[in-house]
Task: structure prediction
Amino acid sequence: MRRFIGALVLVLLIVSVIAAATMNGRAPGKRSLPGGEKVAVVYIQGIITTQTISGGLFSSSTAGIRGVVDALRRVEKDPAIKAVVLRIDSPGGSAAASQEVAAQVERVKKAGKKVVVSMGDVAASGAYWVAAGADLIVADPATVTGSIGVLIETIDVAGLYGKIGVNKEVVKSGPFKDMGSESRPMTAQERAIFQQMVDDIYAQFVDWVAQGRNMPREQVLVLADGRVFTGRQAQSAGLVDVLGDFRDAVREAGRLAGIKGEPEITDLGPTNFWDILMRNITGKVLYPADMLPAWLLCAPLSQR
Amino acid sequence: METSEKAVKQDFFDLIYGVLFNAAATFRNLADAPPIGQAALVLFILTLSNGIVSLSFFRLTFSEIPGVDPVIAQVLTGAFPVLLLLALVFAGLRWFISGAVLHLLAELLGGRGSPKGTLTVCALAGLPGIFLVPVELLVRLLEVPETAAVILTGLTGFVTLGWGAVLLVIGLRETHRFSGGNAVLTIIAPVTVFILISVLVAMTILFTLTALVPFSHSL
Result:
């Protein structure tokens, strides 16, 4: 009997170790956060690109979308999260990256979750592309938004190359393989090709806004000449639903999701080394909305 | 009196049961021929299992954080064998150092046990730690809320620590054939000395810093 109990203790240990080791295969986000119904907050900050580009010590970085998409995927899968507030502070970015985030926003909506956008200082161009798909857009009256349009920029430094004695030789498989090259002026044919690309992406943008905002395409076209709007102007134009701050957006998200009282917030970003370290030490960042410090709610995100 | 009892040969499973649930008789029985190999095996199993579980949960926590670079998880996975090896090396070092210190103090207090016996007791006294792994796993599997999980694992840790200390006292008492009071003193002495040294160092640093700071004047 003694030997049996001794062996049993050892077996319990071995089984536990094996079980713990096999838990590693679980997909992120499958584990529900403790507590009741929650509103998640996901941040989109900086220029939207598919890749994060570090600007070094003295330059600005771009906001790679991987973290945003991961966070939204977690929102999609976690049954405890009923709504998400997308806190946007971005001048836009690449169309493809914006489309990827917008597509993930759609998946979140299809999972039955509500998506509310809270605009900070700026939510223009590609950032508006992302916002357009939300169930509700909340902006500060002075937020800069809009800029519905597309541009492709190239640079011609052939004159500079000539001055410093640089002569670039190009061997190409087709006439347009080096279109957009900085070492020569753009040809008329290349300009036409670029224009077609711009027009196509522009049409996709306009369609997306019309669909997301439930507006006639013609009405979007009137607004989509590339101009920016203040939050108040955007509300008059139908590009924004409600004027308010981040806290209003959280409350709206809770209301749309049918959460009674102050919703509990799950902060899903941003993440850097110290955030990760602190989360490991203190656990998940969970606190009710009414416990959010005033400085966090009132100050622009760029100051956080 | 204890030495007159005939030592009964114990196998590994007997030893595990005995140390956990019948400590005094088991340690008395192994005093004359301490099974240091089995004790080393216990230390190895405990360190390895705790290491695997801790590293697995740490990696799992990392993978659950959105936006975390997957490279970090890959690096952690790649570093597993090295980290486990380091854990084993440090556990071995700690075993020998703590064994040496306890044996020295036990001898000073009149203990008559062998160094092998002290080392065996040091390793086997960690056996209650065997229950930490299943508890930690259950907390994860049942998705116990954060605060309750911290309380539960903390409580388990506290209980196993206390249990381990009791086993150490009993083990030293039986292998060194001295009183329980001396055994307690053997364990408490290094801890007390360490606390005293820490307080002295802290006070020295504090006084040095105070001397460097200019006097403040209040109006």
Notes: The radius of gyration of chain B is 22 Å. Residues 1-5 of chain B have pLDDT under 50 and may be disordered. Chain B has one domain: 2-183.
